[in-house]
Amino acid sequence: MRITVVGGGLAGCEAALYLLKAGYSVELTEMRPQKMTPAHKTGGFAELVCSNSLKSTDPYTAKGLLKAELRLMGCSLLKIAAECAVPAGGALAVDRVQFSEKTGAELAKYTNLTVTRAEAEEIPVLPAIIAAGPLTSGGLLDKLALLTGSGNLFFFDAAAPIISAQSADMSRAFFGGRYGKGGEDYLNCPMTREEYGVFWEALTGAETVKLHGFEGAGVFEGCMPVEVMAKRGRDTLLFGPLRPVGLRTPDGERPHAVVQLRKENAAGEMYNLVGFQTNLTFAEQKRVFSLIPALKDAEFLRYGVMHRNTYLNSPKVLTAAFRLKNSANPLYIGGQLSGTEGYVESIMSGLLAAVALDRELKGLPEAVPPETTVCGALSRYIAAENGAFQPMNANFGLLPPPDAKRKQERGKAYHDRSLSDLTAFIEENRIEPFFP
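^ thats the sequence. predicted structure below, dont judge the formating
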């Protein structure tokens, strides 16, 4: 049987790989590079457009536990990510070029795959998974709005700038992670109270790009431009991306503020400014960010950009298995278009949508992972009634509290319960072929 997957991003690639392993013929449609988005730079599969970090690997955190759950289910892209990892302390960060190339190479192994490089302007021939991403093109977006009857919601998203590692002033910077963890994974750029004050004044008064067509959409709290955050108060950044907690300069002093830079590629030639998603004009980014002492003469290899993100009003139109409710035939939505927010969360939605589609085609009942798992709780969130629905990251607030009296024991309790329940779920539902 032939299945169409629209979108060659994280969710689309994960879904396609699962279905290919299951023996289906898959047509993977991707409009890049014939038609580019405002955020993408290449036509490569699984291109990461914002940060290169897939967040925490600590299994006792929600994001770390989600990774453990997906590994238990044989997730293809997390295996590739591990092969492309760059040092990032307690996070999984990747060389984004290697990651995209390896994903493309993995897809190319399958003779039952057909890749179509063209813009999808119509709802594809069913069965299908639409994982066209937060920058879904206009024609397909219009058809989805017509099909769902719910319209679409919009929010802003922003990418952080990248600098040349050699251009940083190492006399004003130091390597190290918070509380001594992570070795030399982060390059820290400290600021005194006076230096921070000058930086904050410049940042809050800097010129931003005029976003014609985006007016009134608002700012998504989960990916806020640094200048918007700064305008919420002089000290707001000190509790966010510039927090000095857990960091000490080589002479043992605690800085007033710290800008952290993370490796962008395995060679360590490029660094991105952690938490510095921005909508400042390019000229203003150069002027303002150069006020960070260690970046006084920084060479910017890529300036930050802001772009549109689009998602469906999922509680009204999707089931917890990512299936479109009003479709008589199998049609699933994956990735950020479904209302999941974050790289790994998008991968999760692609995998679960593929699993659900496979089950439907085999005449099996819908099966959603338990609510005690991060993937199950997040899947249920996107389908739950919500008058003010917004995309959601993995977090423990979505799960029922575990039986743990002490706060420091809760992470382990969430972890142990989740993996136990997920293992039972896989076995009881005979879900195949999860494993590569």
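The mean pLDDT is 91.
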